[in-house]
Amino acid sequence: MTMQHLRSPSMNRLLLVDDDPNVVAALRRVLRSSFTQALTVECFGDPFAALERLKQVHVDVILSDYRMPAMDGFEFLRQAREIQPHVVRMVLSAASDFKSVQQAINEIEVFRYLVKPWTEDEFVEQIGQALERAEHDRTERELADAMRLQQGELSPEDLELRRLEELEPGLTVVEWGPNGEVVMSLDDILEDTPKGQAPKP
Q1: CATH of the domain at 117
Q2: Which of 12, 126, 165, 184 has the largest count of CB atoms under 10 Å?
Q3: Domain presence at residue 129
Q4: Distance (Å, rounded) from C-alpha 130 to C-alpha 111?
């Protein structure tokens, strides 16, 4: 079966986390052959290293093993969601873990649960759906931001900051208000004000 038609329309990034190097090698091979240049795949055997990476680059989809010695997959995904709330989260595990997985699906909004052993066609189809979901959610956020901009609830500067933060998490360390505006403290304002000049009202 040829999977080239499942390419995402734009470049996406997938983070694969599994402590079994054989599983990582097999999944990476399938992903790279099926999605060609439309998908950047980054693989980690250590969930803590993966969390650090999430602080540096935007990721569209995370696929994490459930049973890992350093940190189980659900705790990893919970922490990953705190770093990148919009990332599509997926779990890879055995059928015997179904009850635990079912509970976590609701708690941390897991998009898909892939059962071992998997078929290649099934795996590629599920990843394709996850990438489509990521693209859909991104479009929805962009439309919502455009509406806020049009209604004056979001400034062009705030919109650019949001865009930069999504591309490079941590690049802009800001606090967002309920309507999407950037919240700055008095210390932030004073720090940005040249010495001898009063802050603007």
Answers
A1: 3.40.50.2300
A2: 12
A3: yes
A4: 7
pLDDT digits (tens, 9 = 90+) for 93-133: 876 777 777 777 788 889 998 988 889 999 999 999 999 99
What is the domain range of residue 45? 4-141
> Which residues are bridge partners to 61 per DSSP?
14, 88
Label the pairing between strands 61-65 and 88-94.
parallel
In sequence order, which residues have a C-beta less than 8 Å from that of residue 36 and are 6 or more positions away?
A: 4, 7
Q: Which long-range contacts (CB under 8 A, 24 or more apart) does 24-31 make?
A: 27/63, 27/123, 30/120, 30/123, 30/124, 31/127
51-54 long-range contacts, Cβ below 8 Å, gap at least 24?
51/76, 51/79, 51/80, 51/83, 53/15, 54/15, 54/80, 54/83, 54/84, 54/87, 54/169
Which residue is associated with the tokens 């694969």? 16
C-beta of residue 135 within 8 angstroms of C-beta of residue 9: yes
Whether 103 is in a domain gets the answer yes
Number of domains in the chain: 1
79 located within any domain = yes
Assigned domain for 28 exists: yes
